[in-house]
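User: Hi! I'm a student and our assignment asks us to look at how structure tokens line up with a sequence. Could you show me two examples?

Assistant: Happy to help. In each example below, the sequence comes first and the structure tokens follow. Example one:
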Amino acid sequence: MLRGLAAVALLIVSNTFMTFAWYGQIAFKSRIERYGLATIVLLSWGIALFEYWFLVPANRLGSLQFGGPFSIWELKVIQEVVSLTVFSAFVLFFMKSEALRWNHIAGFLCLILAVYFIFRK
């Protein structure tokens, strides 16, 4: 159980870095627009490096192959749910022009169903 919780916690940290690496340049456009695309790509890669520092240990801790509680299918679905949850928080906090709508919630409910079906034995 502890390995599973640790894996999920590391996935949350990893996905936070991933979200900033992928979408930070949109959210912070006014602060970085003076830089060229190559500089922004390198900055994003630098942030994404930290994503991998947390993602790889999360997958190793959580995977059945390394003594964790999750199959690779379960681990992937958990990662996707964590990813969309972190992304949603990012959008609501940093992207004031974007709103959470009913279709977003419907999509999240579909993900919850995916978790149910993937974890069903």
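Example two works the same way, sequence first and then tokens:
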Amino acid sequence: MKFLIITGNPKSDGLCKLITEEIERGAKAGGAEVEVATCGTIARCRVCGDGWGTCRNSNVCEYGDDGFNHLQKKAQEADLLCFISPVYWGEVAEGLKSFMDKLRRCEFAASTIEGALKGKQVLLAAVPGGSGNALLTCLQQMERFCQHTGAVIFDYIGVNRWNQGYKKTAAYNAALLMAKGVKNGETVT
């Protein structure tokens, strides 16, 4: 089983990196083949053409040579996904937001049929620093993306500096269970 962790974290250390490592560790312990991909270099959607460019007809971005098309393919091939981001200005990090905006457009038409993300289990994680504020608005932004693409949210993990001790365990366990094949809606004891 392929488990792809897509992070918007531009830093090589810190709490978001720590939680990413816990998710990776949990998924590996569950038997998944895990890859962590950073999308910090992906540029904003150019809203080309009449607002739908090649993304609507061919499900690829005409300007995806910034790493988007490669990461889109990885997301399509993965069995399980995790989106994790630090919280900046109450939203996901800019690189992850750009990736999600482009992917949403590329998968939009397909999501009503059999899009690559439709029915795919996804773990969402938001990690605010400092005040710990805006965790919910960041998770809501990721939730809307999942609704638009047909992805199924396995769980929401919100981690700040005060709850990191027990949320690290929750992140690990969520990834472990996903990798073992547990799906959204199944009771875990």
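Here is something you could point out in your write-up. The helical segments are 15-29, 53-58, 68-77, 94-111, 135-149, 164-179.
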